[in-house]
Amino acid sequence: MVCMDEQPVQLIKETKQPRPAAAGKPERYDYEYERNGTANIFLCTEPLRGVRFVSVRAHKTAKDWATEIPQLLDTQYPEADRIRLVCDNLNTHGISSLYEAFPPE
Fold first, then answer.
1. Mean pLDDT value of segment 39-62
2. Among residues 16, 23, 48, 84, which one has the fewest Cβ atoms lying within 10 Å of its Cβ?
3. Starting at the edge strand that comes first in sequence, how are the strands of the sheet with 85-86 ordered?
4. What percentage of the chain has pLDDT greater than the value 90?
5. Residue 65: per-residue pLDDT
């Protein structure tokens, strides 16, 4: 059993250099940051074995999700006879996404 989910994330970068650590004080960071775009993280877990696979993409589309499936099957589990993929009910997580990305055969 493999569980798959995705998470959009905001990419940020520091605008100021952190203050160095001093005797008895840790390094300090300012709360200001600059937005540096977004990304989407795909996470596949196999909870019974304690294994995780992470992929980062620029977008969160049905095709992006669909192209993660062959990557998972061909790279991580090429010898598997069957994989039970558990996903949430997001509209991009369905068989139609696979037909949109790949030929029907």
1. 90
2. 23
3. 51-57, 33-46, 2-14, 85-86
4. 21
5. 87
Sign of CA dihedral 86, 90, 91, 93: negative
Joined tokens for residue 59? 């977008």
Q: Say which residue the tokens 């605008």 belong to.
A: 15
User: 41 with 54: CB under 8 angstroms?
Assistant: yes
Instruction: Dig out the tokens for 53 from the structure.
Output: 């696979």
Query: What are 56-103's pLDDT values in tens digits?
Result: 999 888 888 888 888 888 888 899 888 787 777 777 777 888 888 888
In whole angstroms, how far apart are CA 67 and each of 3, 72, 100?
16, 9, 10
Judge contact between 63 and 57, C-beta under 8 A: no
Residue 50: pLDDT band by 50, 70, 90 thresholds? very high
Which residues pair with residue 73 across a beta bridge?
A: none
Domains delineated in the chain: 1-9+38-105 (3.30.420.10)
